[in-house]
Design brief:
This protein has a two-stranded antiparallel sheet. By secondary structure, the protein is mainly alpha-helical. The chain has helices at 2-37, 43-46, 84-102, 105-109, 119-142, 149-168, 173-208, 215-240, 245-248, 253-275, 281-299, 309-312, 317-323, 327-339, 365-370, 372-381, 395-405; strands at 50-58, 61-68. The longest helix has 36 residues, at 2-37.
Length: 407
């Protein structure tokens, strides 16, 4: 019962996280578009302190939107804030990280082929890396590099590459990608919590008190909002990347992911320019071409000879059987070798899955033990594995897996 129930909890957390993320990213896209689309208002509006306005039609009605240079003459009774979209996205994402990767660190986070870690060590490295990444971002913002867009952008990309590479040297591919996503998400929510919302609170208090408004907090909030806007497409990519082992299990997964994220941010730049009245199709076209070329290079068949399986695989499930006299291990290993290893191996022989789905590799008995809860959940409880029962696993074999792996 537990593996199946665990999946339901994971589903609900991920569902909530995606809903919150849609709300946050949607608000980010909308307000960036809104700010870039404001037009010079008529004189009577300027006299009231309005900086820009626009008209829109949606849902069967007309909307008139106005942005004040500083604030209205009188504060409205009800003022809408946009902060909980960010906070709930980060909170649910953190809960999902703990539930999926920290409670199942031996399966999803730790890969002995990369680094031998205990669960506590892996969690410590993950949390420490994320916190350090946020601190580095803050230091870059406060450094002289921030005075130059080109230098700051270069510093952000290089520091991001360093952290991504570091995560891949400690964790499994999926574990590294999720932590990079958590790092970017934490930077984004820190921008909201640490600068954007406090700056808005200060502005509201000054307007309500009839005081002169200090423009510095608003300008800093605007700068960080722009950063968050460019982070959106890269973080969406990281959110969905766990469905594509061809990327997170690539030998240079961190570099591939960094290229995808930079290209996606460049594509986002096209839409930001367009909303501000600058149409530059060359930006969109170059981004699309770059993504296509990257996909083509990664998909091109390798001419390099594949090393002997003995050099790549630690030990096959079949040979592991010979090293274990216990009958239960023998039965499980034989079933896994017969029904699962064609896909779930460092060198899959399946005609469709050329990379192990979900990064699950069952080449050794230690691998099987690590993934035992997931094998039970997918092959026994839900019976959706093997995929479309391609290798024709029998009900008797599923029962044997349950008997021996549940111990």
């Amino acid at each position: 019962m537990w593996p199946h129930f665990y999946e339901w909890i994971a589903l609900f957390i991920k569902w909530f996280h995606v809903i919150c993320g849609i709300a946050w990213i949607g608000a980010s896209f909308y307000f960036t578009w809104l700010d870039n689309s404001l037009e010079t208002p008529p004189k009577w509006k300027k006299d009231k302190g309005i900086k820009g306005d626009l008209w829109a039609v949606h849902g069967g009605g007309f909307y008139e939107v106005a942005k004040y240079q500083v604030g209205p003459e009188q504060m409205p009774e009800k003022l809408h804030w946009f902060k909980w979209e960010a906070y709930t996205t980060w909170i649910t994402g953190t809960v999902l990280l703990i539930w999926m990767y920290y409670f199942n660190a031996q399966a999803y986070l730790i890969d002995p082929r990369i680094m031998e870690l205990t669960t506590s060590q892996a969690i410590g490295i993950g949390i420490g890396g994320v916190v350090l990444g946020v601190v580095v971002y803050e230091l870059l913002l406060r450094s002289p590099l921030a005075q130059s867009k080109a230098l700051f952008l270069t510093a952000i990309i290089l520091s991001g590459a360093v952290f991504f590479y570091g995560f891949t040297q400690a964790f499994s591919g999926r574990g590294a990608f999720i932590h990079m996503g958590v790092l970017i998400g934490s930077i984004m929510v820190n921008n909201v919590w640490h600068k954007i919302i406090p700056g808005q609170r200060k502005m509201v208090a000054q307007v309500a008190a009839g005081e002169a408004v200090d423009p510095a907090p608003g300008l800093e909030g605007k700068r960080r909002s722009i950063h968050n806007n460019y982070f959106t497409l890269p973080i969406i990519f990281l959110m969905i990347s766990n469905h594509y082992p061809m990327i997170y299990q690539h030998a240079h997964n961190w570099l591939v992911a960094m290229l995808v994220m930079v290209i996606s941010a460049w594509i986002r730049h096209y839409f930001n320019l367009k909303h501000s009245g600058q149409t530059k199709p060359s930006v969109l076209v170059s981004g699309g071409v770059a993504m296509f070329i990257l996909a083509g290079i990664l998909s091109w068949p390798s001419t390099k000879e594949t090393p002997a399986i003995a050099e790549v695989k630690v030990e096959s499930a079949e040979s592991t059987v010979n090293a274990h006299s216990d009958m239960a291990q023998t039965v499980v290993a034989e079933i896994i070798d017969k029904r699962c290893v064609s896909c779930h191996s460092q060198s899959p022989t399946d005609d469709v899955f050329t990379v192990a789905p979900s990064g699950a590799i069952f080449d050794t008995w230690e691998d099987i033990q690590r993934w035992a809860p997931r094998i039970l959940a997918r092959s026994v409880e839900s019976s959706d594995m093997p995929f479309l029962n391609k290798t024709e696993m029998t009900d008797e074999e599923r029962l044997q897996l349950k008997q021996h792996l549940s111990r």
